[in-house]
Amino acid sequence: MLVPVLLFLLGFALLIKGGDWFVDGSVGLAHRFHLPELLIGATVVSIGTTLPEVMVSSQAAFEGNAGISYGNAIGSVICNTCLIAALTVAIRPGKVDPKTFRLPTAFFFLAALSYSLAAWTTGRFSRWMGVAYLLVFVGYMILTTVQMKKHPELSEETEESAEEEKERPFWQELLLLVVGAAAIALGARFLVDNGTKIAAALGVPDSVIGLTMVALGTSLPELITAITSLAKGHGALSLGNVIGANLFNIILVSGMAITISPFAVPTEKTLGGFNSSLIVDLPVMLAVMAILCLPPLRSGKMARWQGVVLLGCYLAFTVYQFMS
């Protein structure tokens, strides 16, 4: 049991560091070839922080571990919202620009509702649905780029941070990209393989491991981004990254896993004779995002009570997963 736990933790470390290297290398190469700053921020950096979830879910899909694939996507949304965004809001609530929130929020709820409806009505996800999510991902990235061209002020913080970075040699940027990708792939394999072993040894369903431990581990890049943004006084940037990552967890992470290997909603855990995922996990995912996103869309600012409520939701959700 000790070896799987150590390899599981090693997988976490590889995912975190690998994601960091991959983003640094990608951004460095993009700057070198004079790609627009707004395009870098809207694509490479955002996708980079979601790569751990993509690799873990894809690896699990290849190995037929539907519970990990399913739980990781939903669990990451809940973790990002109730822990990472909640800490940001609870510590430093502030004003937000509704214009920057509308597009990702609208896309998220459309994707999440379609995902939930498929689970509630058919109990499974078909390959065409995975392909559709990937196409939505492409469409979203195009719309985001167009929006940022119309509103160049949205990319100012990315440009300022880029100017502060020291230029690396070309070979070093390429090495960071390759090594980062390899570390993410290896970390994902360690996480899935040993998470499954730990779950089996403890009698915990794969979906619960995906919803909690794996989801927390793959959300660590977003957590680090949030802490860094808070330290630099950019709380709104952190919240924007979280909302974007939540959207990617549905349309990119789940889209990739479903396309690789269509799967049914896990049924290991029940509550009152009903599938727990259908009456707890999916409603919680939708509810916490509503708590985070809807008030600032109306008022243009975050409130500390949102962070406190969301932290309470995360604690209750985690306790429920392991105690029931």
List keywords for this structure.
324 residues; single chain; mainly alpha; two-stranded antiparallel ribbon; A middle domain of Talin 1; 12 helices; 83% helix
Overview of this protein structure:
- There is one protein chain.
- The protein is globular.
- About 85% of the residues lie in helices and about 0% in strands.
- The chain has a single domain, classed as A middle domain of Talin 1 (Up-down Bundle).
- The chain has twelve helices and four strands; from the N terminus they run H-H-H-H-E-H-H-H-H-H-H-E-E-E-H-H.
- The strands form two sheets. It has a two-stranded antiparallel sheet.
- The protein is an all-alpha fold.
- The relative contact order is 0.23.
SSE blueprint and pairings:
Layout: H1 2-32, H2 37-62, H3 66-91, H4 98-121, E1 124-125, H5 127-150, H6 156-164, H7 170-202, H8 206-218, H9 220-231, H10 235-260, E2 263-264, E3 270-271, E4 274-275, H11 276-299, H12 304-323
Antiparallel strand pairs: 1-2, 3-4
On the 0 to 100 scale, the average pLDDT is 80
Strand content: under 5%
CATH class assignment: Mainly Alpha
Order of helices and strands: HHHHEHHHHHHEEEHH
User: The CATH topology is what?
Assistant: A middle domain of Talin 1
Uncertain spans, ≥5 residues at pLDDT below 50?
Answer: 157-162
Number of helices: 12
Number of domains: 1
Instruction: Find the structural class using helix and strand composition.
Output: mainly alpha
Most strands sheet: 2 strands, antiparallel
Please tell me what the overall shape is.
Answer: globular
Please identify which CATH superfamily we are dealing with.
NCX, central ion-binding region
